[in-house]
Amino acid sequence: MVPFHILGSYVSPRSRTAWKASTTARHAEIQYNTKYLRTHNDRIILENTSLLAEAPRIHITETGNKTETKRLPIALIIGVKKGGTRAVLEYLRLHPDIVAPGPEPHFFDTHYTKGFEWYRNLMPETEEGQLTIEKTPSYFVTKGIPQKVYEMSKKTKLIVVLRDPVMRAISDYAQIAARNPEVKPFSEIVFENYDSYTVDTRRAIVKVGVYALHLTRWLEYFTLNQIHIVNGENLIRDPASELRDLQTFIGVKPHITGEHFTFNITKGFPCYRRNTSQQSWHCLSDDKGRPHPNVSSLVRSKLANFYRPFNHRLYLMTGKHFDWT
Ligand SMILES: Nc1ncnc2c1ncn2[C@@H]1O[C@H](COP(=O)(O)OS(=O)(=O)O)[C@@H](OP(=O)(O)O)[C@H]1O
């Protein structure tokens, strides 16, 4: 049995009673077109709803206060793993009004019981006017996290870096293979049955790429205009344009521009500089932009066929189109 499939239309009592309409024209269109996804017993269920999610009423106020210099994050880069999250974090840290811890805090998925004070203490000191952010890519796909983030602050801004899910899976595999050279071939991991190319949807390497499913969970607590999607392919082609939109979304003055970036031909990726009057360029470490294993075009196309309906759902949900295969 394939444990992860579309069951068809379903309207939950909650979606009928508790979800409310949004006011903007963009939302109105999305409300009309969107079928939300959820899971039940590991199956993906499409929910027809004409309504956007209303955030629940539970609310815990932020623990930081004006006299404290370490503050809880106002924005989180929540995913996706291998989407380009490190690049986005390091680029945003070029902004004088943005501070962030370098390591991933993993607060909401691993250390939540340690409490918000523990979390706040992980953050760098902020001066007046500076904003704190953090990145932990596992947040996007981990059940229960949207509610926890909402309880920290219902105003939290969410950043998701999305990349062609087939390429994301291959990138994830390249990381696994770099750590464990004995790993099975890619095709033996992603297909349950290699003869019929049945995709093994129990595998995390596959599941992460069902972006519409994960986004649906976040939309139960946050509205679409609190979620900013970065185009992971465009982030490599034209980082400045993605950063322009990101700075607007976060609400800082435009500071990071094309002058902060150069394309490093040897690395095959953009590198960046903090000070535009200096020539010292920094590139991300060698584990970003790893060589990928050879994956046949047949395997890629079978996996692309699996993701296509979910990608389409994502386009409807977000109003954003990606040129994925
Ligand atoms: N400037 C720059 N330099 C290097 N790599 C870049 C850059 N911009 C985006 N990318 C892409 O980022 C991919 C790694 O994604 P993440 O940082 O999200 O990975 S992780 O989840 O934190 O491990 C990484 O994936 P791979 O190429 O598969 O290694 C890159 O495609």
From TrEMBL:
Statement: the UniProt record of this protein carries the keyword 4Fe-4S: no
Entry annotated with the keyword RNA-binding: no
GO molecular function: [heparan sulfate]-glucosamine 3-sulfotransferase activity
Residues at the active site: 82 (for sulfotransferase activity)
SUPFAM superfamilies named among the record's database cross-references: P-loop containing nucleoside triphosphate hydrolases
Transmembrane segments: none
Cross-referenced InterPro entries: NST/OST (IPR037359), P-loop_NTPase (IPR027417), Sulfotransferase_dom (IPR000863)
Disulfide bonds: 271-283
Keywords: Disulfide bond, Glycoprotein, Transferase
Pfam families referenced in this protein's UniProt entry, alphabetically: Sulfotransfer_1
Top-level division of the source organism's lineage: Eukaryota
Residue span, Sulfotransferase domain: 75-280
Protein's recorded name: Sulfotransferase domain-containing protein
